[in-house]
Amino acid sequence: MNEICCNYGLIAPTNTTCDEYIAGKSTDGTPILFKDYYGTIQGNPGNGVIQYSTKDQTNDNVNNPTISQTNPGVFFYYTGLSNTIKGFDGLDPGTAPDPMTIKIDQSDPSTLFPAFTATKSDVKLFKVNDLDGNGIDPGDTCTQVQLSNNQITLGTNGDAGDVTVNFTPDAVGSLYVISVKYDTRSVVGTTSTSWPTVKYTFNTDVGNNGTIEETDTNGITIAPKFGALTLHGVATTGGAVLTQDELAPVVSAAVNYWAAQGVDSQSIQKLRKTDVIIGNLGGTLLGKADGLTVYIDDDAAGHGWSNSPDKLDSTRVDLLSAVTHEFGHILGYGHNVMGETLGLGDRHLPLDLEKDLLKNQFILATAGQSQF
Question: What pTM was estimated for this model as a whole?
């Protein structure tokens, strides 16, 4: 369970309720902070990244990927704990609470991706039952207030993703919370020559006067999901099955390769602790990375692996290229740097350095350097 500060908007997973937002913790013990709930992405805990994947539109996914899906598809932004969404008596004191306008501003600094979207039915207004009269704090509860469509305005063009709510509080001093459920799938179909990582932020402007009363503290990031390395060609059968003895020195050579690129010692230790597992991945899959585990296909999609440091077999798949590629994912590199396919007889190193350098690194490698 997570305690949160009381003066900030909150980006939360879609199972978060208004009461949990006020309490700062969930009723069932699951995190209410999005960055904790979606906390393990590519082996990195607590970063709350929305992952997107791409599909190939032109048989060249490196140069023309189109986003095919996002995970998760939706999330909540809650706002109101600053106690500024509050019934007030304005120009006509002593009469009734004045109407309020609250704008939630979604900021996307990138021109590559569109804003996350919401429908009017995704916008919820809650009155807070302030039990002790001390403002919103744990122990208070929420009651939803019905909004009509004409009380909600959704931004368009340059304001896409923004939400404006107009309503009149029931009394002076009444406190309110607003939630908006955003749909990340608005980016599906976007085509780009890169695999960008984009951070979105959310701000609450009470009165829509340009003054930010409340903002989320973490923002929310959308980033590529690393796909598997696949064979550029057709799978077959009959390839020799890779052994641990054949794999071990190649793994060590791949570690040495990344060390030679100036990767810091802590990251190199991460590679040394990465499990490299041989298994039947099926189809044209050659390798994939998941957390601190790398999976290598047992027979290179039926073609067999070429595990020589300096001679490539034109009828086989280069094992060093595959392992180095998957280690690149562990280090955070995407397919925009490394590509995502490998052909028979090809040696493709992620940073395209001199191939002769790899021969020296391979000679220095020993099986004892890697942990499986």
Answer: 0.65
* 291-315 burial code (b ≥16 CB/10 A, e <16): eeebbbbbbbbbbbbbbebeebeee
How far, in Å, CA of 74 to CA of 92, rounded?
Answer: 41
| HSE value, Cβ hemisphere, 13 Å, CA-based, for 241 | 7
Average pLDDT of the segment spanning 322-340: 83
> Which among 333, 334, 357 has a CA at the least distance from the CA of 347?
357
Where is pLDDT greater, at 205 or 334? 205
- Write down the pLDDT at residue 288: 84
Tens digit of pLDDT for each residue in 16-31? 999 999 999 988 888 8
Domain extent listing, the chain: 10-224, 229-369
- The closest of 212, 210, 214 to 176, measured between CA atoms, is 214
Residue 32 near residue 89 (C-beta atoms within 8 A): no
Contact 28, 199 (CB under 8 A): no
In this structure, the chain runs to a length of 372
- Better pLDDT: 72 or 47: 72
- Which pair of structure tokens corresponds to residue 150? 């004409």
- Cα-Cα-Cα-Cα torsion 304, 309, 314, 315, nearest 10 degrees, comes to -10
Q: What is the DSSP letter of 40?
A: E
The domain defined by 229-369 folds into: Collagenase (Catalytic Domain) (3.40.390)
